[in-house]
Amino acid sequence: MIHLNNYGWNDKLSQLKQESTYNALTHGRISIVHRTCYEVVSENGLFQCELTGNMMYGKSDFELPCTGDWVLFQPFDEHKGIIVDMLPRERTLYRKKNGTVADKQTIASYVDKAFIVQSLDDNFNVRRAERFMVQMQEEHINPVLVFNKADLRFDKQKVEEQIRHIARQIPVFFTSIHQSQTILQLRESISAGETVVFVGSSGVGKSSLVNALCEKSVLLTSDISLSTGKGRHTSTRREMVLMDGSGVLIDTPGVREFGLAIDDPDSLAEVLEISDYAASCHFKDCKHINEPGCAVLEAVSSGVLDRKVYESYLKLRREAWHFSTSEHEKRKRDKSFSKLVDEVKKRKANR
User: Fold this and answer.
1) pTM above the 0.90 mark?
2) Three-class SS of residue 106?
3) Domain count, the chain
4) Residues 103 and 245 in one domain
5) Which domain holds residue 40?
6) Which residues are annotated as a binding site?
7) One domain, residues 135 and 155
8) How far is Cα 73 from Cα 26, in angstroms, rounded to an integer?
9) 49, CA 20 to 30 Å: which among 120, 180, 210, 295?
10) Annotated binding site for Zn(2+)
11) pLDDT for 267-316, tens place per residue?
């Protein structure tokens, strides 16, 4: 028998299940998504499940179950089932879907922490780390910055200078699978029943870190490329594994771009520490671009606020505003369309 408390099941989830029409059915957590097939961990083992037609065709893509979701399903045959309901999501990590204006893509749900993994080679990118950090804090997920491959030669002082504004807000770890003490420190930061998602670019060693934390090979990894000296991309899906006596780890495929999908562009100011200066601006609605009496611009000019951080804030704010505005317009269109459909149905019913 599997104890789902180890996977994060708690009294709140139990209450949410009781509120469902299907509360008599078996509950479980999605560990892997294979297009239209879902692997679900339950008290009675692992089940291969599919969706009911209502769920498959009645939901948009980002509303469909993802890794980490808690679902209710009807078992049939041996270790097969049909998912009929999904418990309301919390702490869901999204990103803007590539090639769209306002569509979201779900990465994982019921996430407590997110390890933003970068490797200490050409992959190191402060701006990318800021992007992940902003999106996570929007969903009340605790971000952690992990610099992997610390056995490589690198200028630690230079790295720490560039991430000073990040390190003041979130934990930062330097790790290497060849340095057991660094893995131990990372493992000790994960509590029992806690869900941690690993995000970052391809080749930074996310799967290798998961294996090292679990102290056994649970995920496939690739050898180092002889031509580039970097790890080859291995993960092709979001996969959940359980650490012995500790938390749940979710590995994710590497992403080249991570578009913001946040509804509140103003939250950027706090994450990038702009709000510390914005409170002293002459105008309450100051945009920090060219307004007189702008304390943010003054901080940039005097060198107190890093210009690169300020420029990153402006870029991310434009992107977040564009997404939130497009999302708002999309919701208005959907609402108008639904209203029109209801009116047509009423007319047909009255004939």
Assistant:
1) no
2) strand
3) 3
4) yes
5) 4-86
6) 148-151, 200-208, 281, 286, 288, 294
7) yes
8) 6
9) 210
10) 281, 286, 288, 294
11) 788 888 888 899 899 998 888 998 999 999 999 999 999 999 999 988 88
